[in-house]
Amino acid sequence: MEILKKVLEFVMDILETVTFVGSLFIVVYFFVMQPHLVKGSSMDDSFHNGQYILTNKLAYRFGHLSRGDVIVFESPENKDIDFIKRIIGLPGDRIKIENRDVFVNGIALKEYYIKDKTDVYENGFMREGEEIVVPKNEIFVLGDNRPRSSDSRIFGPIPVQGVIGKVFFRYFPADKVGTIKNPYQSSLSLSFVIS
After folding, report:
1. Theoretical Cys-Cys bridge with 143: which of 42, 89, 147, 168, CB 3.0 to 4.6 Å?
2. Which residue ranges make up each domain of the chain?
């Protein structure tokens, strides 16, 4: 009888631990950070198909959207699909693509993280040489692999509320493990606070 009581106590301790860990995982997953699998080639060479990343879901609740941040957001065309892209334009920014260069507020963006220049798509949102203004509570995003990316050039700026979070860590493959840096981090003037 004593052995049965000890076994039962042991099982209850394990169940309590599993319940606690499971609850903690659920809270972290839904409110703090979320793993994502990179699918497709739209962010090559920064992120490749099959890599695993962590997204900070609290980054923009207590911080700033910044040009250069890599984000995960709901696809404007299908809410069941998540996209990974880089923030290029913030609310109020003037964006223009001309001669395959991206201009933000009249200044050509220096994008050392891309291999190919930026083209516009026929029948897309952006037109060659035409400037657009990013609306309030929206951002303009582009993939780093410009010839292979469906982004704001096609569907226009995206709503801030559709942003799931900021990509802050890559955990697979092992040779690419590490934090994700913003290439424009030193420019404090490039930030925008969500209202």
Report:
1. 42
2. 36-184
Say whether pLDDT at 2 is over 90. Answer: no
Q: For residue 115, indicate whether it is catalytic.
A: no
The CATH number of 36-184 is 2.10.109.10
Say whether 42 is catalytic: yes
Buried b (16+ CB within 10 A) or exposed e, 76-112: beeeeebbbbbbbbbbebebbbeeeebbbeeeebebe
Amino acid (one-letter) located at 110: K
What distance separates the 2 farthest-apart alpha carbons in the chain? Answer: 84
The tokens for 141 are: 């995003």
Q: What whole-number distance in Å separates Cα of residue 95 and Cα of residue 169? A: 28
Collapsed DSSP state (helix, strand, coil) of residue 133? strand
Catalytic residue among 46, 57, 66, 85: 85
Nearest to 39 by CA among 89, 79, 85, 77: 85
